[in-house]
Design goal:
The chain is α/β, with parallel strands linked by helices and 231 residues long. The chain folds into two domains: 158 residues, 3-Layer(aba) Sandwich (Rossmann fold), CATH 3.40.50; 65 residues, no CATH class. Helix content is 51%, strand content 11%. It has a six-stranded parallel β-sheet with strand order 3-2-1-4-5-6, with helices on both faces. Helix 11 links the parallel strand 5 and strand 6. The chain is globular and about 50 Å long. The N terminus is likely disordered.
């Protein structure tokens, strides 16, 4: 029989990516990204899409910078303009959570885990998506990315802010934290922070996530309960 102390040791800080992990948005956002580059700068899909997939999780600005650098068109004014247009269009999309998301997160919340969002999207976009999908009450903290503010960047900046907000000592977030995401960058930042990296497999990217450093892979958020019990 599990003691109270054993149960307490299993309580985790669960840091979730948002797009592609909790809500089913990645195909639409990837299409928007590639279509804009094709239309505005005549960049073919076979150039833009692999870069988008490789840098997914960082947010659109670094992705646009990488593509425009590849085609020799990198200018800050162009990046600013296309990123602004991207968000203007993307924010007209209605976010749809994966079918199991609300149920799974509700259970994890009831079990006492601390749930946090760390996204490469803007803070306004994160809040909007959580509100429209009715997920916002489940999270202790929901962080978007602002490239101009170091602590508001997905990765080390977010992790430092999370630790400070939760009153954690330096070793506690790596010891108790689990990062769940669907992208290469998600696995990289989790590993760099010393956290357990869980890759959500989408569109056949299991091997990509494994090579990026995923400790564990799941195909569905419902697999999180068994995984957490085994950690």
């Amino acid at each position: 029989m599990m003691s109270k102390d054993d149960n307490k040791q299993q309580v985790r800080i669960l840091v979730f990516d948002l797009d592609g992990t909790l809500i089913d948005t990645m195909r639409d956002l990837a299409d928007l990204f590639c279509d804009m580059l094709q239309r505005e700068y005549d960049v073919p899909d076979e150039v833009s899409r692999p870069i988008y997939n490789q840098l997914a999780g960082k947010g659109p600005r670094p992705q646009f910078e990488a593509v425009l650098a590849r085609v020799g068109r990198l200018e800050h004014e162009l990046v600013d303009a296309i990123t602004e247009d991207y968000w203007r269009v993307a924010e007209t999309y209605d976010p749809v959570a994966f079918p199991e998301t609300l149920e799974v997160l509700g259970r994890l919340h009831r079990e006492g885990h601390t749930l946090i969002v760390s996204s490469g999207g803007t803070s306004a976009s994160v809040q909007r998506k959580l509100r429209l999908t009715r997920l916002d009450p489940l999270f202790s903290l929901a962080l978007g990315t602002d490239e101009g503010v170091p602590e508001m960047r997905k990765g080390l900046g977010h992790f430092e802010l999370i630790a400070r907000s939760l009153g954690l000592r330096d070793h506690e977030l790596p010891a108790r934290g689990v990062f769940i995401g669907d992208a290469v960058y998600d696995m990289q930042v989790a590993r760099e922070a010393g956290m357990v990296a869980v890759g959500r497999v989408t569109d056949g990217n299991a091997e990509t996530l494994r090579l990026a450093g995923a400790h564990h892979l799941i195909n569905d958020l419902r697999e999180m309960h068994a995984l957490l019990a085994a950690l």
